[in-house]
Design a protein that fits this description.
Elements lengths: L4 H9 L18 E2 L2 E6 L2 E6 L3 E3 L2 E4 L5 E5 L2 E4 L4 H22 L5 H14 L1 H6 L7 E6 L4 E7 L5 E3 L3 E4 L3 H14 L9 H18 L15 E6 L2 E4 L2 H12 L4
Antiparallel strand pairs: 1-4, 2-3, 2-11, 3-12, 4-5, 6-7, 7-8, 8-9, 9-10, 12-13
Helix pairs in contact: 5-6, 6-7
Length: 257
């Protein structure tokens, strides 16, 4: 399921067997979703994810939306079991909407972070049994500090701020190293990238992840299938359209001999 290495290894060393046979899960393969990333660019935060959902070594679906909008200024990208993640997003969406309507104001960014953390903590039994682990990346616009921010979590609900970027999923080891290299030794930091430059990097990163991780879906030009890329800024969440992704992929990602 592509859980983050250090925490996953710790659980194994302590004797936990994630995904071990249980009454609920014995003999079944649960669909999981992989490689998601987020990084800051000049105007806000870009969040992207591939489209593949797998069950063991089987590809179950190639049009999964792994970057889910919670409200006008926040998204949750999912790595793990889609059914659990989708339910979490529905709960968060309802909670944020209820708060907005009853308090006549938006829930604070800190409040949103706590809500995500609580849902993950409540989901620990399912995560440890191997039937519902989710390791998300949360991104949104903080109006109090007037900045777009990125946070990532472990399966127990501990939150960590991704100062420049965050990744999760089975393809994350590949692209984490690339992101570090680009941000440290590239021509300029990722946060200085234009919207188009950021989208090109996201396409290249997910293509690289798909090359080395079979659970990550790449671009399928014949089916006009491209990753999900969403942009978060002060004016809200915006989806980058497929025709723009196609143009950027053809001109800046595909190698022309």
């Amino acid at each position: 399921m592509g859980m983050q290495g250090d925490f996953y290894q710790l659980l194994k060393e302590q004797g936990y067997q994630l995904g071990a046979s249980t009454m609920a899960g014995e003999g079944r393969e649960f669909m999981t979703a992989t490689t998601i990333l987020a990084f800051k660019y000049r105007d806000g935060v870009l969040v992207a994810g591939d489209r593949r959902a797998t069950a063991g070594n089987m590809v179950m679906y190639d049009r999964t939306d792994k970057v889910l909008e919670i409200d006008r200024h926040s998204v949750m990208a999912i790595a793990g079991v889609p059914a659990t993640a989708y339910e979490m997003v529905r709960v968060l969406e309802h909670s944020f909407k209820y708060y907005r309507r009853t308090q006549l104001q938006e829930l604070s960014f800190e409040g949103k972070l706590r809500a995500v953390s609580k849902l993950l903590k409540d989901n620990v039994p399912a995560a440890l049994s191997g039937t519902g682990a989710v390791v998300p990346v949360f991104a949104g616009y903080d109006f109090e500090q007037e900045a777009a921010k990125i946070y990532f979590y472990d399966i127990l609900g501990a939150e960590f701020e991704g100062v420049e970027y965050a990744v999760s999923g089975s393809g994350s080891p590949t692209i984490r190293g690339i992101l570090h290299y680009l941000n440290t030794w590239g021509e300029r930091p990722l946060s200085a990238s234009t919207e188009e430059e950021a989208a090109i990097q996201a396409l290249r990163l997910l293509t690289s992840a798909a090359e080395f991780d079979s659970a990550t879906g790449g671009v399928n030009r014949e089916s006009n299938l491209y990753p999900i890329i969403k942009l978060i800024a002060k004016d809200g969440v915006r989806v980058m359209p497929d025709d723009q992704l196609k143009r950027l992929f053809e001109s800046k990602v595909v190698r022309h001999v």
